[in-house]
Structures are given as structure tokens and as C-alpha cells.
Amino acid sequence: MDDTIYNSKKIFVKVPFGYGIYRFKILRSQHWGAVDLLILQALASTPSSSHTLARRSGLPRQLIVEILIPLMRAGWIEIVNSDSEFLFRISDRGRAVSGGDDLPANQEPMSHVRSFLIDPITEQCYRLDRKKKRQTFQVYKAGKAKSLLAQYGDYAAEVIVKSPRLSPALQDIFDCVAYDSEDIVGFEDDYIKLSYNDSMRYIIACVDPDGQVSGAPDVSNELKDAILSAAKKQRDRLSLLGTGKKSEGSAPESYEADTAAKSFQTHVIDQGQIFLISGAEAHGSHLGDLIRAAKTRLIIHSTFINIECLEALFKELLDASRRSVQIDILWGQTEPESTEKVQDYNRLIRAIDDFQKRIDTQGLSTQFRFHKSPTNSHSKFIICDNADAQWGVTIGSCNWLSSRFNRFETSVNIKHPKIVSEVLSIASTLAVGRHGVANALSRDLAIASSRIAKLPVHVSCESIKKLIKVRIITAPEHHSLVKHASDTAMREIFVCSHRISFAGDRPILTPLLAAKKEIPALAIRIAYGRPSGAMKNREANDVKSSLEEAGLEVVKADDPQIHAKFACWDERDLVVSSLNWLSASSKGEEFSELGVHLQGGPFSTMLRKSFDDFYDI
User: Fold this and answer.
1) How much helix, strand and coil, in percent to the nearest 5, is found in the chain?
2) Which of 38, 272, 367, 434 is exposed most, by the fewest CB atoms within 10 A?
3) How far apart are CA 304 and CA 585, in angstroms?
């Protein structure tokens, strides 16, 4: 059978997408210039036609018209009829803004219906344009897609995505549906779905013999690979079996594709925007500094809340809210199973209610909020701005609202809008809580995330050449990074965890032991503070002895007990995290743990020295 016959044919591939449609509140960003202001001020003197304005200004009439149209959309000028021509005159709103040195950029948000598709492999979102001529692809419901695909017979295939990912972050939806110079500032719809499995749409992609894909949006590399793979497998099948083997009306051949894990992009940023916080008291000072410096917003996510620790911070938090700082407190602890711990949990819920009542009596109920629905996340972070309009995020091991700041902790503070935006988007996802319903806070954080992502980056002249790679790390990515460290480290690996257990042997210790066996000169050190769960000290000591026999250095850092969670290798790589590397599993929800990977700079060396100095090693 001649393979070239089939290799020269186009293959048509049916591809699934999630689908959403909402009515958004959209603010169009209009950047006004000096000419816009001069035209408005000229109309403030007397109504004029476009011909008159062109003559007086010396500008082409077409340019004058292009200037007048946005001014009309802003509601600052209006058209009136004269005997012989149309005149433009200033409105009351226009007169109110025409006396300044600049025109205000903000306008009233407008309501627009926008729809979007969701890549089932990566959750990337694609805007659907209501004007079909602007699109290079068509979108169909299931029945229509099936009937269209049937006409291609044996030259048709279908991509089936196993366990499709169809719960995009709200910020991703916002960024997708907004055009250039637009900002999404809210929804008009009361209910926002978190998953789009029940509203599917399909496109039919065409794959030519050269592997070029048409009839599809600019999809992710992963989905494009799935489309190309389905087309190739169908060609291979035709080469083997030939055509005419399918009965009329039968379904096209389907080919499975796996989903891709959530992963944030790597940012290359100025070293001067990164600050390492290590030690005990340094974390207490850092939290106080952030509260006092916050200008408009402060968001704290702490896995646990301790009533006494919160009371010690409460006055400063109240003072910040009185100066118009919006404060949102999120926490991760979910209701425990044991009766004794449930009682403690219920006492905490009542205490949080009491704190909120104290806030409400101060008239600050909308300014300072405890969000009672737990996030079920072990991550720890703070997001806030300062008087210089700089936004920063602190990520690490410290439970900010339950710590007495007497244990060794490690965190990283990063002042970079893109990274702050990513963690705000994570906070938006966490804010839906265990009920999984988008709420006012999750929407608010998504809007803030989208806005902050567009802010300019402030770079100091002194450190602009000292560039560091930075990436936010989700829970499932932690263990693969230890595997990467074990495969690439040449001199030293150091893993530090609050707890150790038998569970740590499989995902963490195995690659470390393999690396030590492969390169005996590789120095591998692990440090822990205490056994986890039912593990006894005797059993922990047995694990310690077996690891030391294998050539690893094991440090029990319990005076005071260490709470830091980090991994570093050689001089350039450092991961600071909330994950207990030696006891907890990184499987499960993507944002159940959160870390940050730094590549380059002195941070790995600085942290190792800080640890050694603290424990006098």
C-alpha cells in the first residue's frame, strides 16, 4: 500500500474546549494628550464645527474628527445641529475636567458580554470574538461538530483529553477577554462557575501534510502537540488499514491526551528586588514593618491562627485599617477529626468572630475582614504595597498569625509586579474556600492581580546587571525539583524541614541517596526539627542513623526547634517553601503548598550561613 497517498492528505481533528460567557464591567484606558486638552478647551469657549477646528489648529480635518470621537465617548463633548452644519460643544462634564493641566484617564466602566474558550490541557483561555470575521476558526456545539466531522470520513480524528483541566483562574479569564487598553473591573453576573466541564465547545482543526495546523486559535504547545499527534496516528492507521473500513455514521477515531501540570513562568528580575528573611526575630520585625508601611492593601495567608499571637498584632492591624489600608486575613486550617481538636477549632472560630465584632464596632467592617472559610492550604504568604506604590509578596515557612517568632524560619520577599500578580491570582483561587464558589473577595483579588500585572517594574541602576531567575512553585513541583537537584548538583545539597517521617523516604530521600551513590564526594545534608505524626523519637533516630551510614549528614535542629522549609544546591539554587520536605507529600491540590525558586545570586550561600550561625554549626 502506498503510504504517500495518505501522507499527502489533510487530516481534520475535532478538539474539545471549555466554554464560558459573562457580562463584564470593562474600563477602557484612554491616554489623553495635550492636543486633546486644547481641543476641549477651544470648545469650552464656543461650539465649533470640525472644519473650524481644523482651520484654527492647522491640523487635518480627519485628524480632528479622530480626536473628537474619543472625547464624545468620554461624555465630554456633544453634537448639536446648526442651520448649515453639525457643531461640537462641550458638555457640563467636559467643562468640569477642561480646566486642569491634564485630562483624567478614568471613565465610567461599561458593560460588555464576552465569551472565551478554555484549553483542556493547560487551562489557557482564548477570547472568542463576536465578530466572526476577526477569527481564523469556528466554534461548534457537540452535535454540529459531529455532523461536520462526519463528512471527512476516514480523514477525521478526535482528541480526547483525560481528566481535562477546566477551572481557570479568574485573572486568566480577565486577561483573556480584555482587549488592549481595557481593564476588567468586575462582573455583572452574580454566579461565576469554577469549572466548565458542563459547557463544552469544539473546533475542527485541519492538519496539512507539512504539520501546519489551521482552523484553531493560537493554542498552547501541549494542545498543539496533541492535535499533531492525533493527525499522525490517523495517517499511520490509514497507511496500515487503508480507507473504507469505517461504517457510515460511526464515530471518528479518538486519541487520548494527558493534561499538563500547572506551572508558572520564570521571571528574570533585578537582584535588588529580592530580600531573604531568615532567623526567628527577623520574621517578627518583617511582619511589623509590612503592616506599618502598607499603603492601600494588606493580605495575609497563615495556615494557622493563634488567638494570643493575633491579639499581640491586633492594635497595629487596626491602626493600619484606620489609615485606609484594606486588610484581608485568610487561613488554611480545616476542621480536624479528633473530638479534642474540634473543640479547639470551634473556640478559634468563636474568637475570630469576636475579633470581627471588635473591628465592626470601630466602623471598619468593610476595611478589615477575617474570612472564616478556610482555604485548606498549608501555604504562608503576605501581599501588600507601600508608600512608594511598590507591591511586594513574602513567601515562606512562617505562620504569621500563630508564630511567636522564636523558631528559625525562612522566607523570601519579592518586589516585582508580575510575581505579586501571580500570588494574588493564587490567593483569588484559595479565597473560594472549601465551598468552591467564587465570592466577592476572590473576584476582587483577581481584578487586583490583573491590574498589578500591568504595572511598570522599578529597577535600581546599581543592580540592573545582577539578574536572578525567579519562579513560583506549586505543590506538585516540589519533589521534581529535589530530583532535579539530585541530578545536577556538583558540590552540595541541603534540605531543611520542620518535620521528618517515614513518608519522606519515597519522594525525597531516594533521589538524594542515589545522587550520593553516584557522586560520593557530593555533600548532602538534611536538617529537621521533630518527628511527624505517630513517628517516635527512637524511630526518627533510627532513620537518622541509616541515612548517616549512607553518607548523608543529618542535623536535628531542635534548640530552638527549626520551622524553616527550604532546599538549596551548590551556590546558585534555592527553593524556599511551606512544604515539609521530609514528611509531607506534594501530591494533591496545586496550591496546598507554595514555594519560590531562586536561581543565581548569593541567596543559597546566605541561607546556609544563616542556618549555621543560628545553630552554631
Assistant:
1) 35, 25, 40
2) 434
3) 19
pLDDT band for position 460 (cuts 50, 70, 90)? low
Cell of 80: 448639536
Q: What is the mean pLDDT of the chain?
A: 89
Q: Where are the alpha helices (DSSP H) in 17-159?
A: 34-45, 50-57, 61-73, 92-97, 142-150
Which residues lie closer than 8 Å to 517 by C-beta, 6 or more apart? Answer: 550
Amino acid in position 79: I
**R_g over Cα of the chain:** 29
pLDDT at 1 over 50: no
Look at residue 135 and give its three-state secondary structure: coil
Q: φ and ψ at 364, to 5 degrees?
A: -115, 25
Distance CA 603, CA 572 (A): 7
Q: Which residue, chain included where needed, has cell 511598570?
A: 456
**DSSP labels for 63-78?**
HHHHHHHHHHHTTSEE
Which positions ≥6 away from 151 have C-beta within 8 Å?
none
Task: Identify the helix (H) or strand (E) that includes residue 299.
Answer: strand 297-302
Count of Cβ atoms closer than 10 Å to residue 7 Cβ: 13
Q: If 0-12 CB within 10 Å is exposed, 13-18 middle and 19+ buried, where does residue 140 land?
A: middle
**Cβ partners under 8 Å of residue 254, min gap 6:** 157, 158, 159, 160
Amino acid symbol at 15:
V
Residue from 596, 530, 518 nearest 559 by CA: 530
Q: What percent of the chain has pLDDT over 70?
A: 92
Q: What are the structural domains of the chain?
A: 3-26+111-257 (no CATH), 30-97 (1.10.10.10), 281-406+417-452 (3.30.870), 468-614 (3.30.870.10)
Question: CA torsion, points 235, 237, 243, 248, in degrees to nearest 10?
Answer: -110
CA distance 333 to 375: 7
Question: For residue range 158-189, what is the model confidence (pLDDT) as tens digits?
Answer: 999 998 999 999 889 999 998 877 888 887 77
pLDDT in tens, 257-270: 999 888 999 999 99
Q: 11-20, 39-48, 91-100, 475-484 — which is least confidently predicted?
A: 91-100
**What confidence score (pLDDT) does residue 475 get?**
94
pTM of the predicted structure, to 2 decimals: 0.84
Helix orientation angle between 50-57 and 61-73, rounded to the nearest 10 degrees? 120
* 548 CB neighbour count, 10 Å cutoff: 11
pLDDT digits (tens, 9 = 90+) for 367-378: 999 998 899 999
Quick count: other Cβ atoms within 10 Å of Cβ 49? 16
| Spatial distance between the Cα atoms of 171 and 228, rounded to a whole number of angstroms | 29
Other CB atoms within a 10 A radius of the CB of residue 240 amount to: 10
* 98-115: pLDDT as tens digits: 877 777 765 678 888 999
3-state secondary structure 518-541: HCCCCEEEEEEEEECCCCCHHHHH
- Residue 346, classed as helix, strand or coil, is helix
CB 554 within 8 A of CB 532: no
Residue 133 burial by CB count (10 A; 0-12/13-18/19+): exposed, middle or buried?
A: exposed
Whole-number Å distance between alpha carbons of 279 and 298: 23
Q: What is the pLDDT of residue 244?
A: 62
Contacts of 394 (CB under 8 A, 6+ apart): 277, 286, 290, 381, 382, 383, 411, 412, 413, 414
